[in-house]
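Subject: Interface between my chains keeps coming out wrong

I've been trying for a while to get a sensible model of this assembly. When I model each chain on its own everything looks fine, but I need the whole thing in one frame so I can look at the contacts. Pasting all components below, labels as-is. Any help appreciated, I'm running out of ideas.
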Amino acid sequence: MLNYIEPIAKLINQFARLPGVGQKTAQRYALRVVDMSEEEVRAFANALVEAKTKVKVCSVCGNLTDTDPCKICQTRDHSVICVVQEAKDVMAIERLGEYKGVYHVLGGVLNPLQGVNRDDLRFAELFQRLTGDVAEIIVATDTSAEGEATATYIARMVKNYGIKVTRLAQGISIGSELQYADEITLSRAFTNRREM
Amino acid sequence: MLNYIEPIAKLINQFARLPGVGQKTAQRYALRVVDMSEEEVRAFANALVEAKTKVKVCSVCGNLTDTDPCKICQTRDHSVICVVQEAKDVMAIERLGEYKGVYHVLGGVLNPLQGVNRDDLRFAELFQRLTGDVAEIIVATDTSAEGEATATYIARMVKNYGIKVTRLAQGISIGSELQYADEITLSRAFTNRREM
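Reply #2:
Try treating it as a single job with all components included. I did that and got this:
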């Protein structure tokens, strides 16, 4: 059996490093690349290198940026800080286009079993930002056990500064049927029910 | 709303050109790239460019290759030629590791509605290869209507040279349940039934 020729094998291995990409998908991507023009492939390669070399972490909020501080930190309302786990959470909230405040990217959540402790996350940088100008901290970590534990820790610490802390609402997803909600979600939806 | 920063937006657009990749998947890939080391990203970029610049089409069989003729044409039995639509079909058959003959890659199938006619495929190159040394042509085009029509055309032409033409067996997939076979497959399975 003759396997892939070397240049294609190498490219398949590179694509297979992307999240959720197996051998078959990587092969499909690699063959698509071979079908592109050389100019297109060079543009792709440049985009890869530039995404790595030009993208930095904002020294204020920890978000991905090509300026420092990032454009969000430069232009938005610093009285509200939304705390998220990862840069992709910032992207999700920015897609809404509704939030006018700034962010703080933790870089993960507390997870002692996997060796992620307080010093591994950007907590110190968050607490440094809690000056008199900050009116509210919105905690938008995931609703996983670790996300909840991290939110609780942040809430306790931030309250020491006399600043309001809020958490994104949890409940049944809009448009979904009640019967398909999992038990914990349904239970929280009852606890957090509001008057109509 | 602030959208993606430019270097990330550019990379997302590049990933979104790959088959089956939407915005969300492209974003996940782009963020994975940002997390790689610069060395890793440069290796990825080089693999892209090399897959394009080093990979050529074999002048004999039309398969992708980094030598000419390709390693399969150089080392294997030329008395049997397996005719396939695309290079990816060669890869699928090579994964089996059972076939010892050579290939002929057509570059597609006859599809007059989409403007693919005889002159657009590598038929002339195939017929040129039909010298006295060739004992059998195995037609392994897809079982689509176009694949069948292409197979029929090849069979008619090759028979003029007095060479045996065979087609890959069609029937119910191994391991699949009869009830889920589509009607055409089931009908062919009856027609091509064999004595036990």
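Reply #3:
Confirming on my end. The first strand of chain A starts at residue 56 and ends at 57.
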